[in-house]
């Protein structure tokens, strides 16, 4: 009877955690009595920024709770080893390994363990590909040899995903397949470069005696990207990288006015389902390289081809009146509504340091950041010289429910049902979530990228407070 009650209670808790969006990771690390694990949280949504958190290790043990709404990738490092995998609502994953001998000691257990184990196998494909280079160069047909070896490993991992599909959500399965496809695409393209040391088209032109008909077909197939994985952030990013390298190395040298045509040429390489995510990632990456005025005009033309309005608005916000905010700039004013229905603006907090945080309810990394800086808010909770102001881009109903549900500390405002189109999103150049700023007591930008480490953030805020000498 007690066993049945225990099982029922366990099933209830697992179901409750899944509904609540809660996932856990814990474990034991030999030869790591203290310190921390660096964890990068990567949500599936393209517009969601990555969040870096520290998971304390005490006596070799660690644990952390994640509030997520969808399968989310955790990229973890202990300073020596790099590992990770997808974690989904309801998961409770336990890891055990030796810091000095990770590969032969790692053990995954608990609900959701399959996803971590599979991701480890996928990451091994990249390692295996690098090891193939020397042996492949010695073969009559290097591509046939190398790709066949990768195919075998790819098939093994693919079977693992199929066998585990019944124990995970369809979304988790899809994300794993996308991650596998991304790893395979990147590994094969990089192998070609490593083996022949030449551009893609030159390999086809000059290495005819080392390319069988099968080799040529397999190479050409690399540039036929698979629309089935358009929902995978990792696959879209891999396609962006491979397609961009191909265009720059093979098309640019023989194309007049390449700069004005590159986005159209990129779109022509892609199936319709992949055009939006890949073009969005490419535009965002190009913008980070501080485009010239001429390049910005080309980018504006490309923006109009984006079908996803959120992607389009995000890049438009970057380009409109482009002048990156930097420390020392006057903070843009704003007008927002708070929880009481009152209007607030920058002058509402005159003489105070403001920690400004843009978020939305279903943003997993946003909640990771809330969790990570809780000690900072606790430290300053009785200090009236500082304000923690969150700005939600959700509509009023979703925003108020989320604030109540998640118990986020601080002052709260929202973009007044204008979502991502509110002027504050443009003036603060918000293109990913969460986005954070520190504004000093004089109303100037103190930091455009506050630390996500609570100890460092605390020091940054204390430095900002001291600006007025108070």
Count of separate structural domains: 4
- Structural classification: alpha+beta
Strand content: 15-25%
| Global mean pLDDT | 90
What distance lies between the first and last C-alpha atoms, to the nearest angstrom? Answer: 65 Å
The count of strands amounts to 15
In which order are the strands of the major sheet placed?
Answer: 10-9-13-12-11-14-15
Uncertain ranges: 5-19
Query: Looking at the structure, what is the overall shape?
Result: globular
Radius of gyration: 25 Å
Main sheet: strands, sense, barrel:
7 strands, mixed
Keywords:
470 residues, alpha+beta, Immunoglobulin-like, 4 domains, seven-stranded mixed sheet, four-stranded mixed sheet, 17 helices, 19% strand
Explain this structure to me?
Helices cover 49% and strands 19% of the residues. The chain has a seven-stranded mixed β-sheet. The protein has a four-stranded mixed β-sheet with strand order 4-1-7-8. Strands 3-2-5-6 form a four-stranded antiparallel β-sheet. α5 packs parallel to α8. It contains 17 helices and 15 strands. It has four domains: 110 residues, Immunoglobulin-like; 139 residues, no CATH class; 68 residues, no CATH class; 134 residues, Glutaredoxin (3-Layer(aba) Sandwich), CATH 3.40.30.10. About 3% of the residues have low confidence. It starts with a helix and ends in a 5-residue tail after the last helix. The protein is globular.
